[in-house]
Amino acid sequence: MRLYTDEILNAVCLHYADRRGVSPTDVEVQLSWEEQYGFTAEVWVKGRSQYILEANIIEAIEQYVYKQYKRRVFRSDIQLDADEEFWADIAD
């Protein structure tokens, strides 16, 4: 299974909306990859900014796959990658 940028963004938005008790429309996410830090994202919740690390993104994907696809996956099954687009490969 592979999730592309839009679904990864949705996963993070839904996860942080749930954690903060706000609507998903109150959450904005920008994904990035840097040599020094790996995969990160900047998350804005009602205008307040927070940077999250790869582990947080993977946690959001794990929850998203469970809720949207009714599939239980573990963090070790999720591998993030990017070239011109971001994607997450999820082991079967």
UniProtKB/TrEMBL annotation:
Q: Please name the Pfam families in this protein's record.
A: DUF2653
Q: Which InterPro entries match?
A: Uncharacterised_YxcD
Protein name as catalogued: DUF2653 family protein
